[in-house]
Amino acid sequence: MRKFITGAVLALAATSPAAAQLASAPMSREDYEELMTRANQLPDTPGSGRYPAVIHVTPALPDHVVYHPADLGALDGRKLGVFVWGNGGCAADGTSSRFHLAEIASHGYLVIAPGRWRSGPNARDGAEPPRTPDVSPTSPAQLTQALDWALAENARVGSPLHGLIDQGALAAGGFSCGGVQALTVAGDPRLSTVVVQNSGLMPDGGPHLAGMELTKAGLTALHTPVLYLDGGESDIAYANGLDDVNRITRVPVAWVNTPTGHGGTYHDPFGGRNAAIVVDWLEWQLRGDAGAARTFAGPACRLCTDPAATIEWRNYP
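^ that's the sequence the OP posted. Answer follows.
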């Protein structure tokens, strides 16, 4: 008999964006492994923004992967925003959402994810080591470390990033288990917004999987506008995300759903439509871009009139 893996298990253990794409449907171990193989054959992409991005690793920030515009000189006075990211499954694979993250970087962002370069034909590290059920492969502290490193490089004379970062344009985000990591560090006063994708906190009183221990009380630490980007009712995180949204009363929350299931569009070319939504959110929240704001706000906002998406607001003036 073939062993089948449920969407819930895949979502919490996925280590590639392609694996996440089919997470809302049961699939066999054989199909899962075939999907992983195909995904890892797809080339890295530079994103579709003005600043084609590269994937980078640095000994100064071990166990992290960095994405940024390949030609920093092309910024021509524009400052980089910073987006620290928690991987799906809290995986120790900083390239598990490489298309999504490179797309964001190509719009003028320094994006940092915990883990090693384990996905794609240019991967430098082997497969993720076997997991211990009660230990998360990565931690929220690694998102804070990434933020600390970025700001230190901004200040360090001789750094390629010296003076290039907008210290008022800092954000945290993540997918599934990684979204919980982003919520765990959301109280950091340096952050200006948080993005929670295909994720939500586990119900109080129930089992909390490794890496997803934050309770609903942690939502009180939020001090910035928040975007929840979920995949509709077939997304296993839908109920948890909606419950979070309804509990947040102190800050503006946009709750956006697109009919993708839990897998989102992470492995689509340039991260798909959901990467474009995240870029617009960051451009609005971190840079005050009025054109990007029209994706979310106004009587005829783009998501308001999109038949393949819904948007609801809480605490929005």
